[in-house]
Amino acid sequence: MKIVCDTNVLVSGILFGGNPRSILQASTRGEFENFISPDILRETHEVLLRPKFGLTARQADGIIKYLSDSFETVFPETRVKEIAADPDDDRILEAALAAKAHCIVSGDTDLLRLGAWKKIRILAPSEFVAEFFS
Predict the structure, then answer these.
(1) Which helix (H) or strand (E) holds 1?
(2) Which end of the chain has fewer CB atoms < 10 Å from its terminal CB, N or C?
(3) Are 120 and 92 in contact, with CB atoms under 8 Å apart?
(4) pTM (predicted TM-score)
């Protein structure tokens, strides 16, 4: 199954654990094909550098390298304007479209509100785990 994880899932999985970490670990083991894009990596890096997380630039760079090495990178050619409230969410949709993903995993309410987009399901981490982990 091909998935794209939103930035909030990546950050939560790396820093805090829970369902997001379980999803990232399963992807690393090859249970799911997890796709990222340069835009997702850029946004994730920016989020990791927020003072509230207390990470150094070197630590954030290491996390980005881990994500780059662990997941397949896609380079979306189609730009999307679907989420007016937060255009960064459109980058997630673009990556999912480029990856031909089956599912987007996100904690973002704007994305979750869609439910699905172009036949790509959008699930919260808890929903994804409940449905796809035995």
Answers:
(1) none
(2) C
(3) no
(4) 0.95
Residues 56-114 pLDDT 10s: 999 999 999 999 999 999 999 999 999 988 888 999 999 999 999 999 999 999 999 99
Q: Give SS3 for 90.
A: helix
- Phi, psi values for residue 44, rounded to 5°: -60, -45
DSSP type of residue 53? G
Tell me phi and psi for residue 10, to 5 degrees. -60, -50
- What the block records as the tokens of 7 is 């930035």
Dihedrals phi, psi of 94, to nearest 5 degrees: -60, -45
CA separation for the pair 6, 15 (Å, rounded) = 14
Q: Coil, strand or helix: which one is 4?
A: strand
